[in-house]
Amino acid sequence: MKKNKIAMLALCGILACGGAVGGAYALYTGYSETTENQFTIKAGKLDETNSDKVGVIEEDLWDKTNAEDMMPNQEVAKNPKFISNAEYEAWCIMKVAVPAETMKIGGEETASVYDMVSLEGLDTTNWTLLKEQKSDTAGTDSVYYYGYNTTISKGESTSELFTSIKVPDISELESNVSDTVDVSAQIVQAEGYETIAEAFAVLGIQ
């Protein structure tokens, strides 16, 4: 059996948020390293010797200065897409990890655990939500896996998964927050897998 080619792009598209409660709203401070998202991607599952670059995540609208001191309901452009450099046609899966914290939203009297930001402008035509793991514990991440519905070849790009992130209507935050929103990508060879769901299944993500 031909060895599956699976590759991972780790920790790309980072937004760090720090917050402090002031009055009836929370403040957020952010920075990003998404302009430096040329990452080494190892081709081949658990192959620690092959360090070929097989692609990058690009966010051409991201500007870290726009994410400084974010306010409730504020929206900031962030538009990740994957550009393949793999020598084989492949399926692309993006993983988005969003920090969750205890907070009150709007006029709520009781605090609950919510994602610190929402993903806005999701492209539900070209991407499919394959799995979501919503956090119910403050200080942990909600994790979302999205699969691109068509395969891509070398030099080709996916569409943008989403176009921006938005702070919810926070009325109270229990503690200061400093965390990150992480976007990463994995690719799986197209040969042998007819759909994005089949390609995702081979990753064995529980």
3D structure, described in words:
By secondary structure, the protein is an all-beta fold. It has one domain (6-201). It has 1 helix and 14 strands, in the order ββββββββββββββα. It has one helix spanning 196-201; strands at residues 6-22, 25-31, 42-43, 55-58, 75-77, 81-84, 90-105, 112-115, 118-120, 127-133, 141-148, 164-166, 170-173, 177-189. Strands 1, 2, 3, 7, 8, 10, 11, 13 and 14 form a 9-stranded antiparallel β-sheet that branches. It has a 3-stranded antiparallel β-sheet with strand order 5-12-9, with no helix packed on it. A hairpin with a 6-residue loop joins β7 (90-105) and β8. The longest helix has 6 residues, at 196-201. The protein is elongated, with a radius of gyration of 18 Å.
